[in-house]
Amino acid sequence: MADIRLQHVSKTYDGQTMAVRAMDLHCPQGEMLALLGPSGCGKSSTLKMVAGIESVSAGEILFDGVDVTRRDSAGRNVAMVFEDYALYPHMSVRENIAFPLRVRGASRAAISKKVGDAMDLLGLAPMADAAVHALSGGAQQRVSIGRALVREPALVMFDEPLSHLDADQKVVLRTEIRRMQSTQGLTSMLVTHDQTEAMAMADRIAVMNQGVLQQIGSPQALYAQPANRFVAGFIGDTPMNFFDATLDMDGTLRLPGQQGGGLQPPWGVGRPGESLVLGIRPEDVVLHSLPAHVPALRLPATFLDRECSGERDVLRLHSAAGSLHVEVASPCSFAAGETLVCCLPHDSLHYFSAHDGRALCARTVEP
Ligand code: ADP
Question: 64, CA 20 to 30 Å: which among 26, 110, 155, 265?
């Protein structure tokens, strides 16, 4: 498996659409790196440039330190796993997995051994002779992974591999891909718009927006220490709450309608009179009353409604500072219209520039 590097890689279509801008990325050998971002942010363009399917407008792509920018797809040995499986429906599981080896003229014995190993690894042996069109979506995707692996590729690219699956199959297959990726030491890139999928599967995540890499880091680092407002809002099951705020002339921060005293932001965050954006995750808002000595902003808010997600309820509230979501243990028994005091503990707050959205304070994070 290879070590992959992108150095200042850009992609422009038709001389005008800049799909990817000066992207620097490193996927070390054996790592699963997710490219995550909303539709149109440039994930597929990046994937296609790495795979050699799309030309690079500027910059270099290195495999194990060797410049492969001008090599075609065959010269890079990248295997792809697509969202729609791209299998031969009337061929059997065994025939589909064997296909890339046949095309390369591998010996009968080598094909039999490699296909057998891949089927064992993916739990496909009991259905080896079934036609793939008769299989579930999850099993078809496992066949397509088997077909990718028998090539012994330098890199495996997973392009939205779980998009067509039912919710229960998604969870099973994402665990299975993760297990296989780490036991086999596969260098792999995962393209997805689904942050839950990226958080569950990847060693590190590269978050993209409008063709620009926003931040790259472990799932924990992106969650705890987002580099800007975009990443803060994109990572997390329920998006982070944001409030516009302006520092008083004495440097104190207050939110409209809050009870009690304001807060002194950490050293270096904003200047007196400056506008900024305050962020807090729904799971960090506390609804029971905190002891008075715990520093927190206390914000009265009207309970509107709730959405139940199993063990947790996500409450929707409205305050004078804006609307917010709060996550609490289920079931909660608040009545619509009830006023609740939301405590926003100081050490759970994130601060962003109102001007360009960058994080204003480096928060500490466990490695
Ligand atoms: P994503 O995979 O994140 O949805 P894409 O890489 O497909 O993003 O697209 C990034 C931008 O490039 C979009 O604005 C898209 O319309 C544009 N784009 C993608 N492919 C082409 C193409 N072949 N020709 C022209 N524009 C394209």
Answer: 110
